[in-house]
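User: Modeling request: complex.
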Amino acid sequence: MKEQKIKNIFIEGPIPPEKIATSIANHQSKIGIGAHNIFLGQVRADEIEGKKVTAIEFSAQQEMANAVAHEIREAVFEKYPVHCMHVYHSIGKVGVGELCFFVFVSSGHRDGVFESLPFLVNEIKAKVPIFGKEIFEDETHQWKVNK
Amino acid sequence: MEITFKYHGRFTDLFEKKKEILSVKSRTAEALRKELEGVDVRFRESVYQLAQNNKIITGNDPITAAEVDVFPPFSGG
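Assistant: Request completed. Predicted assembly structure:
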């Protein structure tokens, strides 16, 4: 198992698309990698009881979130032949159409990334203490519930 | 003993605060849940988890920390 330090998964505000491109480019020197897989979460303009969501404001128990994300990352390294992985989540306000969640796994072969990515994404959503507040056009809000 | 309860997500609206100090008698996670639900309908009518020292606590897990997080269901991603 690859031992890794606890990383800060949080990025203030939306995740810039350029970060995804840069992350891919940063792996060009890791020539044992033969496959990448990426999940991007984007804020959706849901309509709830006639009101449109314009943004989600994310809050978290950040210290625990980073610790749990670290445990999940270690579990993925144990379970799948993954060379490296990166997890980023927004904190604060993210407008509709902007990115709030970026998960990136790399492996020698496609099976490693096809199998590990859904596990990693689902574990993060289920176990990491992050909370989304959906902001409507009229500045009212409701707390997001994951499906 | 006195515990600082730190509220997250919808609980910050429900309790209209981010944290409060409560005096409790319970020494385990399950006993604490029952105690909280016995004194406050908002706990009784909500789905929530408790955590201390960055770990979810359940059942007979002992309460050892001075701060306990109160989490509604997570909704990241």
